[in-house]
Specification:
heterodimer; A: alpha/beta; Rossmann fold; Jelly Rolls; 3 domains; 11-stranded mixed sheet; 6-stranded antiparallel sheet; about 30% helix; elongated; B: mainly alpha; two-stranded antiparallel sheet; 2 strands; about 0% strand
Chain lengths: ~800, ~280
């Protein structure tokens, strides 16, 4: 027991070492709390995580808007456990850092990053490439993602970047314009207001602007008041946009973007990627579109953190790893019915979605008309911060939805699809608008309309458009529809949905009428993906199943019981029992060294009190029980389960066995057929023995015990076997039937066949049997002709009990004791 | 003449089992599900099945979908039958087959006939699997017929909003039927193993159903994490993948393979056990 436990402990130790350093993450690094100098005298609250092995590459870990250094602690610990020095800091204007929020401006937050890199160059735990140039990567989500990209553009010392759910252009994110029109798009008031409030309310002691810089506070006020930025605001927005520096980024960059993100939609990552790629085609670039985002969606952060670590392993540690250029999580089309959770599919591609092949789809009815209500109320809800996709999902099932209000929305539909279609990326269409107003605010999306009338708008993402200077004869424009991951089935229609309202955006206050006509086919992107299915699940599992089936076959074959099938020595005896012993599993010795022979034509009585081992002996004779020692042979052939020589044996042991739902006759017929023999069953003779008459055609369920018994004896005689083995055959029979049974057995033996009858009643055996085997407690007491036994026991003995008393005293107790 | 290969022929064993009330009641049990659901939906109070669907908050409105037509009704019946009804019926057929012979004492006469022990198990397994497969076919055909009578033969529309024409719907239903047949082999194997292990038919059937219910409960505890992937019922609902516009086979391949693995292990355990067993019933 102790040894087994030690062995187990050793096994556990080995497996946990094999699982890597994760198990010991807690002990693998140390931390130091720091107060570091940012740009312009700002003090930054920071924590450095130092792994055991030094020097190591460093990772700067930036947090999201309203967070602080603690919000990235889990990821920092994971990276430190992987052997990176991690510097997590609280951005200026947040938490315990001083300074004011300037939205990742080059002179503010971005300059702070350079100061942090300066600090890292002084730490001996960090790998230094040159004096003042540490080996360093930077990672962050959203606000932290933008500062990562901007810093990589401004500070060439950064060696790898991983940016998640962030923006390319802050102007485009807050005033999205998806048409070729010089004006700003509608102000994304809901998101902007939410974020401004989140940052200012906790610092309300500092006034309405909280810790925002006065410039940014003014920009927010301008946007709320006018719906458009002033020239000064525009400068601020541009300065904080990675788009200004993407042509300078040469560090390997991993861009991750969420499909459920109406704040920074997938198109932001496409722009980042295409700008970086256009400026420096050799810059290693990879992109992941996951199912999360600012709207919620499905959290994949564990998987993303792993991807980020792989990215840094490759570009900071020089690890050899394969990293797919473009990975997409497809949540369409499979939702678990068990718990309604999304079962995602993972698609990979060897190319980025930059210059993808396109496909054109015609719009058969190229016209729609809509109105914009006065005051913009009621307004459609496509997605809202933190609620987003759930509403859209609820709306996807019923007909009218909050996303498409009647009269305010229209659908430009394709014909029903002849084949399923899979779209990953943006789409576009050229339209002409005419209106009673000079300008228009519209919200476009690419949706699937099913034959049953459902409308599915992927993640509730829309492309807002603002059109200025609409001429009287109408103005043409091309709209970039949202980049989406979408599946449509045969029979579905793709549609360009257009809505005049959206509660997330600033809207015109007067009522308008718009008419839209289609000027070009719908252009959709057609990328080739390989579903990220491991080969193991496609081929490995079936192969494994096949191996198991073969092994199972082999196993049951090799574990089959081996029987001695060699004939035993020639003997004229029909049955030879030699040294037969049976010890049951519980240690009970039922039969002990039993040997006797039965010749042809004999009627042998197997006698003994209850528990003498008679039935056990007979069961061994039938191949039902395995002898512990010794063996039985019939006709010189050994007996074992399935031994062919058993075909010469008819048996009735411990009561009848019939299918209760069938008649007596059917039971006999089926039994004969199940033996599978082709010789004569002597059916009529057997039926005569049953003496059942018309009851033979009734179900066995209705039989009395005596009737079943006679049927069972008839069954044992089917085919007239050489040897008949009967266990207490007269139990439950009335005197006439017992008498008839005796005659049956005697005449059976006269044909040269042999009968073995077990009984505990001498009187019965005396009249039938020619020979006797007397057993007690598994032992053979005596064996010989009936006459001899009776003589031995004395004339007075009339019962088996009396013979026993004569032969072995009154030791008739039955039990296990020996 | 005695020939081991001719003992207990398949058709004979099939006849022995089909004549049983148990078989009849099991099939009535299977048929009654679609009939009862159809009657309940057709003549019961309408409830809120025409109201807003609860897609985002929980499960899809399956009953609402079931009334769209025969194919939809059939797929909803699959959903209702997978966790218990088919498990119960398959446990009955495979769990009862050997144990009931033991309880009737017919087993010893068959073995002394002699029907070789491995052959007896194989013949019985062939028949119990045939009866199990018939129950799946019966579920599909009655669901379709009942659905067609009650709700017509409109195109199939899945909870995910995908619409299939009649040809495609038929293909998907056949795929689901075969997948269920494969994934339920694990249940069949378990019941059969228990059937060889006990002389009490109710014990084998009840034991198998009990273990499957336990497995379903454990599968619902998300805290168990990846351990649940190794539960025998973990993949029983993976046929749902066959309802999406393009079939993702990953889960179904895994589920069917895992079920085959469990089945082959359990059957060989049963054979080994039976070959060594002292028949004392």
């Amino acid at each position: 027991m102790v040894r087994a436990r030690r062995l187990l402990a050793a096994v556990l130790l080995i497996t946990s070492v094999g699982a890597g350093s994760y198990a010991y993450a807690g002990a693998n690094y140390s931390t130091q709390e720091l107060r570091l100098n940012g740009a312009g005298g700002v003090a930054l609250d920071a924590t450095i995580y130092l792994p055991k092995s030094a020097p190591a590459p460093a990772i700067l870990l930036a947090h999201g808007f309203t967070g602080d250094k603690k919000s990235v602690a889990p990821q920092a610990q994971e990276l430190a456990a992987r052997g990176y020095v991690v510097l997590a800091w609280t951005a200026r204007g947040f938490g315990n850092s001083t300074g004011q929020i300037s939205m990742d401006s080059p002179t503010g937050e971005v300059a702070d990053v350079s100061k942090l890199i300066d600090y890292l160059s002084t730490r001996k735990e960090v790998t230094q490439q040159q004096k003042g140039d540490p080996l360093v990567g930077i990672a962050g989500d959203s606000y932290g993602g933008a500062v990562s990209l901007l810093a990589a553009g401004y500070d060439q010392r950064i060696d790898a970047v991983a940016a998640n759910i962030t923006w390319n252009s802050l102007t485009q994110a807050l005033f999205p314009q998806n048409a070729n029109d010089p004006s700003f798009g509608p102000y994304k008031k809901f998101w902007a207001g939410t974020f401004f409030a989140l940052a200012t309310l906790p610092n309300s002691v500092a006034g309405e602007c909280g810790t925002f810089t006065p410039d940014w506070c003014q920009a927010f006020k301008d946007a709320v008041a006018n719906g458009v930025p002033t020239a000064a605001d525009q400068k601020l927005l541009t300065a904080s946009s990675p788009s200004t520096v993407t042509d300078r980024i040469t560090a390997p960059t991993l861009l991750m973007q969420g499909e459920a993100d109406s704040l920074f939609p997938l198109s932001e990552s496409i722009k980042n990627a295409s700008e970086i790629h256009a400026a420096h085609p050799s810059t290693p670039l990879a992109m992941i579109w996951h199912s999360g985002g600012h709207d919620g969606g499905t959290d994949e952060s564990a998987k993303l953190h792993k991807s980020e670590m792989d990215w840094f392993d490759i570009y900071l540690k020089g690890a050899k790893k394969t990293f797919s250029k473009f990975q997409v999580t497809d949540t369409n089309g499979s939702i678990s019915l068990v718990d309604s959770s999304v079962i995602p599919k993972f698609l990979t591609s060897t190319s980025l979605p930059l210059d993808v092949p396109t496909k054109s789809l015609q719009i058969p009815v190229p016209f729609t008309a809509l109105i914009a209500p006065i005051g913009g109320i009621p307004g459609a809800i496509s997605s809202l911060p933190g609620v987003g996709s759930a509403l859209a999902l609820a709306g996807s099932v019923s007909g009218a939805t909050a996303a498409f209000l009647p009269g305010q929305s229209g659908f430009l539909e394709t014909a029903a699809l002849a084949a399923p279609i899979h779209i990953v990326g943006p789409s576009s269409i050229k339209l002409r608008i005419s209106s009673n107003a000079k300008n228009a605010t519209l919200f476009f999306s690419l949706v699937v309309r099913t034959a049953s009338g459902q409308t599915k708008q992927p993640n509730g993402i829309v492309s807002p458009v603002h059109l200025s200077n609409i001429s009287n004869s109408g103005t043409d424009f091309t709209v970039q529809l949202p980049a989406v991951v979408l599946d449509a089935a045969t029979g579905d229609k793709l549609a360009v949905a257009v809505s005049t309202t959206d509660q997330g955006y600033a809207l015109p206050q007067d009522g308008r009428q718009y008419a839209l006509t289609v000027q070009s086919p719908l252009t959709i992107s057609q990328m080739n993906f390989t579903t990220k299915v491991s080969h193991f699940s496609l081929y490995g599992w079936p192969a494994l199943a096949l191996i198991f089936i073969l092994l199972a076959f082999a196993w049951s074959y090799f574990r089959r019981p081996r029987h001695n099938t060699l004939p035993v020595e020639e003997s004229d005896a029909l049955v030879t029992v030699s040294n037969l012993t049976k010890v049951y599993k519980d240690g009970y010795k039922a039969v002990d060294g039993l040997s006797f022979k039965v010749n042809r034509g004999q009627v042998l009585g197997l006698l003994g009190p209850n528990g003498a081992g008679k039935t056990t002996t007979l069961r061994m004779m039938m191949g039902l029980i395995f002898p512990t020692e010794g063996e039985i042979a019939i006709n010189g052939q050994p007996i074992y389960p399935g031994s062919p020589t058993l075909a010469n044996l008819g048996s009735f042991v411990e009561g009848s066995g019939f299918l209760p739902h069938l008649s007596g006759r059917e039971n006999l017929e089926l039994y004969w057929k199940s033996i599978g023999r082709s010789d004569e069953p002597y059916f009529e003779e057997a039926i005569k023995i049953t003496d059942l008459g018309s009851a033979l055609d009734k179900k066995v369920r209705s039989y009395s015990q005596g009737m079943r018994q006679r049927l069972a004896i008839a069954q044992s005689m089917l085919g007239m076997p050489d040897l008949l083995v009967l266990d207490e055959p007269t139990n439950g029979l009335d005197p006439q039937q017992i008498k008839a049974m005796r005659e049956v057995l005697k005449s059976y033996a006269k044909t040269g066949r042999t009968v073995i009858v077990s009984s505990h009643l001498l009187a019965e055996v005396e009249q039938t049997c020619s020979h006797v085997v007397l057993m007690h407690r598994g032992h053979l007491i005596t064996y010989g002709t009936m006459k001899k036994i009776l003589t031995k026991a004395g004339k007075r003995a009339g019962s088996l009990e009396e013979i026993f008393i004569e032969l072995i005293g009154d030791d008739l107790t039955i039990g296990k004791e020996q | 003449m005695y020939t081991p290969g001719k003992t207990l022929p398949y058709r004979l064993e099939l006849y022995r089992q089909i004549k049983r009330k148990r078989t009849l009641f099991s099939y009535i049990f299977v048929i009654s599900l679609p009939v009862i659901v159809a009657l309940a939906v057709k003549f019961g109070t309408s409830g809120n099945s025409s109201g807003p669907t609860r897609f985002g908050s929980g499960t899809a409105d399956l009953i609402g979908l079931a009334t769209k037509g025969a194919a939809n009704f059939t797929s909803t019946m699959f959903y209702f039958a997978t966790p218990f009804l088919l498990v119960a019926v398959i446990s009955i057929f495979n769990g009862d087959t050997v144990a009931s012979e033991a309880s009737w004492s017919t087993l010893r006469y068959l073995l002394a006939a002699p029907v070789p022990r491995t052959r007896l198990l194989i013949q019985k397994l062939k028949v119990s699997l045939t009866l199990s497969f018939i129950s799946i076919v019966l579920l599909i055909t009655t669901s379709w017929v009942v659905g067609a009578i009650a709700f017509g033969t409109a195109p199939m529309q899945t909870p995910l909003g995908v619409t299939f024409g009649n040809v495609q719907a038929t293909q998907r239903i056949v795929i689901i039927g075969f997948y269920l047949a494969l994934v339920l082999l694990a249940v069949a194997g378990l019941a059969f193993y228990l059937s060889v292990s006990t002389d009490v038919p109710l014990g084998a059937v009840g034991g198998a159903i009990g273990i499957i219910i336990l497995s379903n409960i454990l599968d619902a505890i998300s805290g168990l994490g990846a351990i649940r992937n190794w539960l025998p019922t973990h993949y029983s609902f993976s046929w749902f993948d066959a309802l999406s516009s393009s079939i993702d086979w990953t889960q179904m391949i895994r589920g069917a393979s895992y079920s085959l693995i469990l089945f082959s292990v359990l059957i060989s355990l049963a054979v080994i056990k039976f070959n060594k067993k002292d028949i004392t019933s």
